[in-house]
């Protein structure tokens, strides 16, 4: 009996080893390798993505040669008058941290890795933006030009122009979301960059920024978004589970956004109806997230 049990145990280990080798394609995997494959996201960042931030800077250089400031600002500001202020107020909200987080909050339930990447990218770009604004201290259009020569929505802003904080927020979220999606399924989500571009144009349309500020903001946002997606792709899967401490912290952030949307004006009075939409989205997300906390695992 002892020999039969020993023989069966030996064959069981051999079969387990064969299964492990067959799963790995003939390559021996250690326990740590298997754990890493199980916990780390399979999202990869293509090499070209790390140089994507150079594109808006190249466009900035071309535009500066062809139509230098302030002529370029005046032309864009006047051209955008074809659309009503409500449209630009909505697009502007895509770059405001409070409203952008509120609109993206359903990702907390449906795609938490994307939301975590967006928050990480937003923190990086926000820090860089604050440092550059304080260091450069460049004037905005209203601080240089006669305000009767261009369209301004809301209270005129005169300082802390470079870079555009709204633009870098929009592009950091777009890049973080896009590059956190598996490469085989990314292409349909290129529209994220279109929304970010429109958010940048909105900053010129409302008279708050020079086109140069927008180009700089988009460059910083793209780099921050790729970096945020890269870092979050290395987070272990249990850290992004519904009952993890990280998602609970992010849920508190969503509630903070709800409070800000409910108690303050986000940039412009024209944005108030869209603030209500953001509040509804956060409430919907919170209800779903709380249900997850009390749902028993199968």
Q: What does this protein structure show overall?
A:
- The chain is mainly alpha-helical.
- Helix content is 65%, strand content 0%.
- It contains 13 helices and no strands.
- Helix 5 crosses helix 10.
- The longest helix is centred in the middle third of the chain and has 25 residues, at 112-136.
- The two termini are 39 Å apart.
- Residues 10-39 have low confidence and may be disordered.
Give structural attributes.
mainly alpha; 13 helices; globular
Q: Topology of this protein?
A:
Elements: H1 2-23, H2 31-39, H3 54-66, H4 71-79, H5 85-93, H6 97-104, H7 107-110, H8 112-136, H9 165-179, H10 191-205, H11 211-232, H12 245-263, H13 272-294
Helix pairs in contact: 3-11, 5-10, 6-12, 8-9, 8-11, 9-10, 9-11, 10-11, 12-13
**Sheet with the most strands, sense and barrel status:** none
Q: Report helical residue fraction.
A: 55-70%
Q: Which structural category do the helix and sheet elements fall into?
A: mainly alpha
User: What is the beta-strand fraction?
Assistant: under 5%
Low-confidence stretches: 10-39
Average pLDDT taken over every residue:
88
Radius of gyration: 24 Å
Give the CA-CA distance, first to last residue: 39 Å
What best-fitting shape do the alpha-carbon axes yield?
globular
| Number of helices, counting only DSSP H or I runs of 4 residues or more | 13
Brief digest:
This protein has 298 residues and is an all-alpha fold. It has helices at residues 2-23, 31-39, 54-66, 71-79, 85-93, 97-104, 107-110, 112-136, 165-179, 191-205, 211-232, 245-263, 272-294.
